[in-house]
Design a protein that fits this description.
Length: 164
């Protein structure tokens, strides 16, 4: 099995007549969801708007958790993730939620190595001026906006897909 430049897994199978059949399937998607302030910091845990993001089943983090195939946590090795990602098709989603400093650091590693396929950002109408930065690890990449929704509490949810 070989992985192409476009991220597809290719396998060649020879039948009894000597012909090759090529099987092509996409790799699993790695998705990161995070809430951040207008100045790019992780919101405080006790922030009322952050509680809405963490608890709202229809629009917040729980919505994405129920649709994910697997959830990944900070102790999950990046090399292991690369390996299992190739074994699943593009209908499979690995989800990393950023809720604290440890998960922010892990997500930073996912962005640093260009492993993130989709980012769901909840922009909270606050600014702290200091804290745990969430955008420092982003590598140079192009992102395509898939959806943008604003809520009555001032939160804006943006869904981005990495463009090749």
């Amino acid at each position: 099995m070989r992985v192409s430049v476009l991220g597809f897994v290719r396998a060649s199978v020879r039948n009894k007549h000597g012909f090759h059949a090529f099987l092509i399937r996409g790799m699993a998607k790695i998705q990161v969801i995070m809430a951040l302030t207008l100045d790019g910091f992780l919101p405080h845990e006790n922030e009322i708007l952050m509680r809405w993001v963490r608890e709202n089943r229809r629009y917040g983090f729980p919505h994405w958790s129920q649709d994910a195939t697997f959830r990944i946590y900070p102790h999950y090795g990046l090399m292991d993730l690369l390996d299992v990602r190739e074994k699943h098709d593009k209908g499979c989603a690995y989800l990393a939620e950023v809720q604290d400093g440890g998960s922010a650091e892990y997500a930073g590693g996912l962005f640093r190595y260009n492993l993130v396929d989709e980012a769901v950002l909840y922009l909270l109408p606050l600014s702290y001026g200091d804290g745990i930065p969430l955008t420092g690890e982003f590598r140079s990449a192009r992102w395509k906006l898939l959806d943008c929704k604003t809520f009555s509490n001032g939160i804006c949810r943006m869904i981005y897909e990495r463009s090749e």
